[in-house]
Amino acid sequence: MADMRPDKTKMPSQEPSVRARNFSEVALGYTAEMAVGEANRCLNCKNPACVAGCPVGVNIPGFIKKIAEGDFDGAYAVISETSSLPAICGRVCPQESQCETKCVRGIKTEPVGIGRLERFAADYHSAKKKEGAAVPASKPEKNGKKVAVVGSGPAGLACAGDLARLGYGVTVFEALHTPGGVLVYGIPEFRLPKAIVAEEIEGLCDLGVKFECNTVVGRTVSVDELFEEGFEAVFIGTGAGLPRFMNIPGENLNGVFSANEFLTRINLMKAYREGADTPVMRPKRVAVVGGGNVAMDAARCALRLGADEVSIVYRRSEAELPAPCGGGRACEGGGDRLPPSH
Ligand SMILES: Cc1cc2nc3c(=O)[nH]c(=O)nc-3n(C[C@H](O)[C@H](O)[C@H](O)COP(=O)(O)OP(=O)(O)OC[C@H]3O[C@@H](n4cnc5c(N)ncnc54)[C@H](O)[C@@H]3O)c2cc1C
Ligand code: SF4
Q: pTM for the full model?
């Protein structure tokens, strides 16, 4: 019999006044007891609508049932059948507009906290792996074919994981010095710690995926040369990393940054740390133009760099903000409702 509590089990998180001044992860994850409690809210539907809302078709009731039974290894194994990046997806996937929006529990009350449970299963596995107690991933049987993946953002990583599981020899070519794409240069540390991204990438290496960083395909090596080297297919997952400017007067003034540059300096280059090689301005009053998730990440980083006042300047009404500050991705991926000052 499912637990019919109306609300999701709350995930512990840093207090707003504390987290607004540090770069540590905001959401702290479920304990085992909380996870089992939340898993018991799932109705284990025969035709689970939640699965239709998951872009990679994770067997959601299957892994939640395992958590409810206390079989956390089993839960991780079920997720891993279809997802290569559970710890990342459990943190930054927009569950509130995907799987959770379809969950039948959400019709009358709050949906099951699918993302929080996914994160719990992934973190449990990670902790066991660090202790040397996790069952190592079995190496897939090689099929003798080589595939090149260009770009190591979530698209490239997911492609690499899926192909490696099918037995392909996969090499990921990345232009930057660190793999991860937006996961490392865009999404801030306090929403997605870089150590988590590194662990997921290590998991792909365990499957046999190779990474070649500092390689700009098209400059360092051409696609034709990749084919000549014996790659039979090339997956291009180079993202859409160029900023779009508004073409208005003043855009080139000192102190005006694209979100890409601002976030890359902070996240990839760790400019927020004392003594970091890459400098970043630490102004006291900041205006962020835009109202999406990227704008929220930039605003929250500015606060954490020491700004006294950060204003979101948005062309439509507050109700129309794509990333309203009242739950959702802008609010820590944990969906907690927070005051605008967080
Ligand atoms: C600040 C920010 C926050 C976001 N937050 C979220 C979120 O919370 N949840 C969510 O679901 N989505 C979020 N998104 C959107 C999400 O990050 C993107 O949809 C996703 O990263 C796209 O993945 P990708 O692999 O296609 O591209 P990218 O992540 O952009 O990766 C592309 C990679 O290709 C590399 N590359 C480019 N050209 C070459 C070349 N010629 N040779 C070799 N490598 C190359 C780049 O260096 C990069 O590493 C956010 C985006 C931003 C910018
Ligand atoms: S729709 Fe909701 S209640 Fe039904 S199986 Fe999925 S998570 Fe569980």
A: 0.92
